[in-house]
Structure of Methionine ABC transporter substrate-binding protein:
Amino acid sequence: MRRIWKWIVGIAIVLVVVGLGAYQFGYKPAQSPKTVTLGSYGPDTQVWEYIAKLPETKKVGINLQVKDFSDGVSLNKATVEGQVDVNAFQMESYLKYFNQNNKKGKLAVLGTTYLEPMGLYSNRYKSVNAIPDKSTIAISSNPANTARSLKLLQSAGLIKLGGEPKNGLYQPRNVTDNRKDLKFREVDDHTGPRLLNDKTVAAVVIGNTMALQSNLNVKKDAIYHEQLNEDTKGNINVIATNAKNKNDPNYKKLVKLYHSKPAQKYIKQKFHGTKIDVNKPASYFN
């Protein structure tokens, strides 16, 4: 028994010495990857599923689980309630609108991803100037996209907006100059592309997610589209989380992963350049 105990003590001493020596020379035991659940929907889900499989994601110690949602409202609520850690689907102005109207919790921006230009499409007219007086233009009924639609029409020179926007979002009542006497038909985002063949509608404002799902390329098929500038700052898409988690270092890694070279190469090829890369910190919106 004494010999056995001597062997046990000796082996323990050797293990301790070897362990201390290894630590001294910089060896550290491998840590388990951090599981992060990200919610998205539409084409963006495909992007994050691709990022989840990248070697770069594994290297930074992230096990990324991607959940697909059918709409943004439920996804934001799931993020506030902790059902998902992070989400990536919305523009900054929509996040701001959600925060103003949600009393159960707030979201915070971790960083930016891209600008998807919103476009004005028409199967009947080849230019903005060709749209006749008294025409009907279909715009989004989603409050954030309604405001964005109207700002797009303003930048195209069709209308002018004025007055104080409600919750920072313009509505048709804010149209102060309508030189062509245009009428606005507010429709669900999913309905917009189908109205391109409706003879009662001259043109349709369509967001890029719906355009992509309808095989439309905003740079080739739209008669007018947004440009990346100060006026479209609020239209930049962001990665968001519950406000209490905004400083989580693992969540912030997702911003760098999105802007990594392999991810950007995939996005450019997959979406034909319709997602314009915008790499800005959260403070960009302050």
Observations:
- The chain has two domains: 34-115+233-285, 119-226.
- The domain at 119-226 is CATH 3.40.190.10 (D-Maltodextrin-Binding Protein; domain 2).
- Residues 2-24 form the longest helix (23 residues).
- Confidence is low (pLDDT under 50) at residues 20-29.
